[in-house]
Amino acid sequence: MMISWSHIRRFGREERGAILVFWGISLAVILIIVALSFDFGRAASTQSELQSYTDQVALAAAGELDGRLDAITRARGAAAALIADKQTFATGSQALGGATSYTLDFYATLPGSDTAPLAAPTTVPEDAVYARVVATPLTVNYSFAAAYAALTGAGQTNATVGAIAVAGFTQFACDITPLMFCLPDPGYKADANVGDLILLRSGGNGAGAWAPGDFGFLDPSKAKVDPNGPCGGLNGAQLDACLMGAEGSITQCFSMRGVDTEPGQKVGITDASFNVRFDMYQAIMNGKRNDPAYAPAANVIKGVVPKGGGACVGNNPPASTNTIAMPKDNCFASGTCTNGRFGDGNWSTGRQQYVNWHYNGSDPYSGASTRYEYYQAELGTAAGSPILSGTGWNGQPLQETGRPQCSANVSPDPDRRVVIAAAINCDTDGDGNPDFNGRSTSIPVEEFFRLFLTQPVGTNGSSPPTLDLWVEVVGSAGGAGAGSSTMGGIFRDVVQLYR
């Protein structure tokens, strides 16, 4: 059949079947997109797996950065040994784990902006606060993209994926007293010096300072106080007194990474606040004796008695004639204690006097080696019955029973006479001088110590009193974090991702 011009013109105007052409082209494009999305999805999945792994490595490493001398060593070990993961689509082994999967560096600070570059890393364990993990890049080979590249001569045949994470660690000590002291040397640890007596000179006439203008107090102004606790709504001297003397939910937290010190001696606040534990309510604490938030300990043997009889010890109380407070280490009498402030735990001379005066020379608690253990043994006497009874060394009735007489309340906490203080390495450069003065900020804490108050504050007979705090080391109060609690304090480890 002959094709005429009319046939050609009619074919040109024909529209039937035209959609098939567009459908075929569209199908090809859709198939290409689906194929490429499969490749891109594999890359995205691998990147997600790698980021998750990197995050966990950073968190594991940061969790060991507690400022101790072996912090970086422990951080590297935790990262290498504790974290294992896997990836699905990248070339090579599917396992993720070990030091070859990442590089790990440590930093003392982070810039304020997430987009700003980090400063140089640190190798000093005490300064390491943040761990930065950079994952070893992985290659994901594209299957469909490679075929497309082979057909067209264009396109990417693989993807390189990586991940970066930065995590940091801080430990907070909450519900503790705002006290600090300088360590005699950086290696002085609480658990290795249990039973040592320490003179925490808190102020007063002739008081020795830990540093110029610093008498051992932390600044509570930045503390978050529980509004429903005993210190809620207080400020100034009243807040200071509450934080030093109250028990219960105070929720005042200090960071081991840096505490702020406060100058001043707080005369009239310090002695009264600590002495409520000994059933003494004076000065700023006058009128608090029936407030359960300021209840005394159940064992208040203190070596002082009320003037002219009565139940409550007033200002400038006279010394008891036949009872004494927990005695000091022998070296304080001989003048051989370290720095004049740190004893060695040997209190044999004073202990014998304590036994002679209170127990007629027969030691009922010979198994107790420290003053804190002796206090706890005495505390175990039947509730409500006298701890001390009978006559003393002078043949007269003992002037103390050991049980509170003034307050209508008694604390149920067996550690009511235990306080927690921040121990600081005050001379990091080794020049023999403290590195800070009265008001300083962000001073790292080496350890929080649990300390037993052995006697009331400011009752040594001098006028005005020296307001010395005598405490015995009970042990470390560091806790295990995660809301762990010791008597008188709650410790929280905060490990979080920053980038």
Verbal overview:
With 499 residues, the protein is of the alpha+beta class. The strands form 5 sheets. Strands 3, 4, 7, 11, 16 and 17 form a 6-stranded antiparallel β-sheet that branches. Strands 8-13-14-15-9 form a 5-stranded mixed β-sheet, with no helix packed on it. Helix 2 packs across helix 3. It folds into 2 domains: 148 residues, no CATH class; 300 residues, no CATH class. 23% of the residues lie in helices and 17% in strands. It contains 9 helices and 17 strands.
Task: Tell me briefly what this model is.
This protein is α+β, with helices and mostly antiparallel strands and 499 residues long.
